[in-house]
């Protein structure tokens, strides 16, 4: 990535972080008010309100898994990313029927599982303290 791209990414991260803090504060206020306001409690428990929160929770969980994976690669073993890419199945030949592409999040889930397995395998080889 170019320096400008990284700067843009850092700005986006800062904006998202600020947005997440604001969302947390607003949800916290709603949660504190809801027990004393039956109408607010009913509104907060409606499907139209819970669905976006479930979507956000899922996206944050996936991002948390990715960030763990990313930090493991960047902090511990930069060559592990290359090893994982080499272990990934090769693309089908041009005459083969392409398989249904999996989503980025599915690929990410498999990648973090590989990192965990790699970590566990290394842990077995280490001597206990």
Describe it for me?
With 129 residues, this protein is an all-alpha fold. The longest helix has 31 residues, at 3-33. The protein has helices spanning 3-33, 38-44, 47-75, 78-87, 104-125. The protein has five helices and no strands. The mean pLDDT is 75. Helix content is 77%, strand content 0%.
Keywords:
129 residues; mainly alpha; 77% helix; elongated
Lay out the secondary structure:
Elements: H1 3-33, H2 38-44, H3 47-75, H4 78-87, H5 104-125
Based on secondary structure, the structural category is mainly alpha
Helical content stands at over 70%
Distance between the termini: 40 Å
Describe the biggest sheet? none
Rg from Cα: 21 Å
Q: Report the principal-axis shape.
A: elongated
Total DSSP helices: 5
- Note poorly predicted spans: none
Mean pLDDT: 75
* Number of extended strands: 0
**Topology order in helix (H) and strand (E) letters:** HHHHH
Instruction: Report the portion of residues in β strands.
Output: under 5%
């Amino acid at each position: 990535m170019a320096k400008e791209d990284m700067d843009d990414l850092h700005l986006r991260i800062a904006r998202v972080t600020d947005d997440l803090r604001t969302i947390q504060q607003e949800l916290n206020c709603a949660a504190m008010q809801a027990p004393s306001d039956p109408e607010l409690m009913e509104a907060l428990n409606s499907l139209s309100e819970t669905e976006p929160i479930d979507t956000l929770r899922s996206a944050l969980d996936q991002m948390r898994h990715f960030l763990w994976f990313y930090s493991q690669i960047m902090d511990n073993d930069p060559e592990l990313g290359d090893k994982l890419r080499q272990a990934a199945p090769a693309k089908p030949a041009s005459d083969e029927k392409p398989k249904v592409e999996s989503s980025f999040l599915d690929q990410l889930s498999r990648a973090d599982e590989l990192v965990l397995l790699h970590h566990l395998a290394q842990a077995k080889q280490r001597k206990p303290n």
